[in-house]
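RECORD TYPE: inverse folding
INPUT: C-alpha cells
STRUCTURE:
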C-alpha cells in the first residue's frame, strides 16, 4: 500500500491531465469569448449557460463517484471509465466549438446541448481519473509528488491549447474563425485520445481495501472490520443506492440553486431566499449526521461521512475559492489582451508564459511542501499570488513587460494551489477511513471535482456578468471602451479577493503534516493485519 511510484508511472499519470486540459483549459479560457464573439450569444445568456450547466454537472460528479467506487473489473475501478469515455470527450470538444447555421434560439439550444454533453463526458472521464491518484499509493508524500506530475501535465496540455489556439485558428481557418475553431478542436481531440491511452496503460490501482461499506462501529484504533451485528447492504443494487442518493441531493441542489439565483440576479428577494435556504440546510444536515448508523443505507452513510469530515469540508471551500481565483483570471485574459491591451496575439504568448511557469510551480510543490509543510505552503502561495495579482491594477495600460512579469510571478504560486488541493483530498479520504473504518475514494474526489467545476462555472459567469454590467457586446465595437475598467478589475483585485478569503479559510484546516503522518501509520498498521476487502 505504501508503494513508491516509478517515474514512468508518474509521467504516465500526468499525461492524463495533459489530455483533460486540452478540454478544461480550452473551454475555460476560450469558450466564453467564442460564444460572444464568434458564435453570437450575448454575454448575459452565456453567463446563465455556464451557471446552469455547471450546476447540473456537479450532481453528475457525485453520482459518477459512487458508480466508480462500486465498479469491479480486472483493470480496477477507475481506469475502465477513463478508457471508455475518452472518445466521447474528444467528440463533444469538437461539437462545442462548431458553428452551425441556426437562428439565435437554435444557437442557444445547440450551445446548451453540446456544453452539457461535454461536461457529462468530462465527468465520466475526470472523476475516475482524479480518484485514480488515491489508489495508486497510500504514501501521502508520493501523492504530493504524483500531484505535481499531474499538474505539470495539466499545464503542458493547457500550454498547447491556450498558447497555440489563436495561431491555429488563424492558420486553419484562413480568416474564418468558425472554421478555424472547428479544425483546431479536431486536432486537439486526436491528441487527447492518444494521451489518455498512455495514462490507462502505464498506471496501476493498488489500494483495494474496503470502501464505504455497511455501517460499522469503527474508531481510529480499531481494525477495519464490520461489527458483525449490522445489516449488510452489499446485496443492494446500484440502482437502489442511486435512488437513496437522489433523496439526499436536495441538500446540495437547493442551496446551489439559490446561490446561483442570487449570484445572477443580485436582488433583495434572492438574497433573503439564499439566507433562509442555507439556514434550513444546516439544520437538515445536522439532523442527518445524528442518525444512528444502523438506520442508514450505504449511500446515505457515504454522504454522512463526507458531511462530518472536517478536513474535506474545508478543502471543499478551498477548491471553490481557488477555482474562482484562477478561473476569473484565465476567463478574462482573452478579453484583456484583445481589447484593453489592443493586441489579440499577445493572448497566446501570455498563456504560454503562464503555463511554462506553472509547470515549474507544480513540479516544485513537493519540495516546497517538505520545507514548509503543505498547510503553511498553501497560505504562503495564496497570499503571495493574490498580492502580485492585485498589483496588476496599477500597471499602465501599454506596459506589456510589467504585465508579463507580474502575471508570471503570480502564476508560479497559483500553480501550487491545485497541486496541493488534489493531494490533500487523498488525505481527507485517509482521514475518513481512519475515523470511521470506511473509505469512498471516488466520492471524495468527485465532490472535490464538483466544487472545482462549480467554482469554474461561477468564475466564467462572473467575468461575463461584470462585462455585461458595463454594456459589453462582442458584436458591437462601440461598446468596448466602456467595458475596459471592468476588464482591468477582473484581471487584478477581483480574483485577489477570493485568494485572500482562501488564505483565511485554510488556517482552519486540522491536518498538519504531523497529524497526517499519524493517520498514515495507523492505516498501514490496520491494512497489514487485515486482508484486502473490495466493496
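DESIGNED SEQUENCE:
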Amino acid at each position: 500500500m505504501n508503494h513508491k511510484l516509478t517515474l514512468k508511472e508518474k509521467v504516465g499519470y500526468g499525461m492524463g491531465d495533459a489530455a483533460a486540459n486540452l478540454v478544461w483549459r480550452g473551454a475555460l479560457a476560450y469558450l466564453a469569448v467564442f460564444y460572444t464573439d464568434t458564435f453570437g450569444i450575448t454575454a448575459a445568456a452565456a453567463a446563465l449557460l455556464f451557471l446552469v450547466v455547471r450546476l447540473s454537472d456537479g450532481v453528475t460528479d457525485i453520482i459518477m463517484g459512487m458508480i466508480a467506487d462500486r465498479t469491479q473489473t480486472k483493470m480496477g475501478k477507475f481506469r475502465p471509465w477513463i478508457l471508455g469515455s475518452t472518445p466521447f470527450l474528444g467528440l463533444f470538444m469538437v461539437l462545442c466549438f462548431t458553428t452551425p447555421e441556426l437562428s439565435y434560439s437554435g444557437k442557444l439550444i445547440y450551445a446548451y446541448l453540446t456544453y452539457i454533453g461535454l461536461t457529462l463526458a468530462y465527468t465520466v472521464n475526470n472523476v475516475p481519473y482524479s480518484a485514480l491518484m488515491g489508489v495508486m499509493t497510500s504514501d501521502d508524500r508520493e501523492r504530493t509528488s504524483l500531484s505535481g506530475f499531474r499538474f505539470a501535465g495539466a499545464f503542458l496540455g493547457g500550454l498547447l491549447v491556450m498558447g497555440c489556439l489563436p495561431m491555429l485558428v488563424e492558420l486553419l481557418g484562413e480568416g474564418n474563425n468558425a472554421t478555424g475553431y472547428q479544425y483546431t478542436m479536431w486536432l486537439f481531440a486526436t491528441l487527447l485520445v492518444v494521451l489518455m491511452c498512455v495514462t490507462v496503460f502505464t498506471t496501476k490501482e493498488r489500494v483495494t481495501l474496503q470502501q464505504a461499506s455497511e455501517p460499522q462501529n469503527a474508531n481510529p484504533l480499531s481494525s477495519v472490520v464490520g461489527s458483525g451485528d449490522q445489516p449488510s447492504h452489499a446485496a443492494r443494487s446500484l440502482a437502489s443506492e442511486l435512488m437513496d442518493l437522489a433523496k439526499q441531493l436536495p441538500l446540495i441542489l437547493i442551496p446551489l440553486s439559490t446561490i446561483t439565483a442570487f449570484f445572477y440576479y443580485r436582488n433583495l428577494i434572492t438574497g433573503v431566499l439564499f439566507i433562509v435556504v442555507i439556514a434550513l440546510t444546516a439544520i437538515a444536515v445536522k439532523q442527518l449526521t445524528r442518525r444512528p448508523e444502523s438506520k442508514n443505507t450505504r449511500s446515505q452513510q457515504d454522504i454522512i461521512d463526507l458531511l462530518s469530515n472536517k478536513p474535506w469540508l474545508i478543502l471543499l471551500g478551498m477548491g471553490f475559492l481557488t477555482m474562482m481565483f484562477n478561473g476569473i483570471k484565465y476567463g478574462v485574459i482573452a478579453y484583456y489582451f484583445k481589447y484593453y491591451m489592443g493586441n489579440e496575439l499577445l493572448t497566446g504568448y501570455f498563456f504560454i508564459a503562464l503555463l511554462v511557469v506553472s509547470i515549474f510551480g507544480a513540479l516544485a510543490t513537493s519540495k516546497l511542501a517538505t520545507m514548509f509543510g503543505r498547510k503553511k505552503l498553501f497560505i504562503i502561495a495564496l497570499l503571495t499570488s493574490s498580492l502580485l495579482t492585485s498589483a496588476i491594477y496599477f500597471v499602465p495600460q501599454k506596459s506589456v513587460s510589467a504585465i508579463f512579469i507580474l502575471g508570471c510571478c503570480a502564476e508560479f504560486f497559483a500553480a501550487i494551489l491545485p497541486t496541493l488541493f488534489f493531494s490533500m483530498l487523498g488525505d481527507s479520504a485517509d482521514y475518513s477511513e481512519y475515523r470511521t473504518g470506511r473509505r469512498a475514494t471516488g466520492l471524495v474526489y468527485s465532490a472535490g471535482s464538483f466544487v472545482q467545476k462549480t467554482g469554474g462555472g461561477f468564475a466564467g459567469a462572473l467575468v461575463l456578468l461584470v462585462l455585461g454590467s458595463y454594456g459589453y457586446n462582442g458584436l458591437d465595437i462601440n461598446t468596448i471602451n466602456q467595458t475596459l475598467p471592468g476588464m482591468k478589475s477582473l484581471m487584478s483585485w477581483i480574483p485577489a479577493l477570493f485568494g485572500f478569503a482562501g488564505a483565511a479559510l485554510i488556517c482552519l484546516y486540522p491536518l498538519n503534516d504531523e497529524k497526517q503522518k499519524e493517520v498514515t501509520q495507523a492505516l498501514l498498521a490496520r491494512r497489514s493485519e487485515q486482508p484486502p476487502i473490495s466493496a
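NOTES: Residues 209-235 have pLDDT under 50 and may be disordered.
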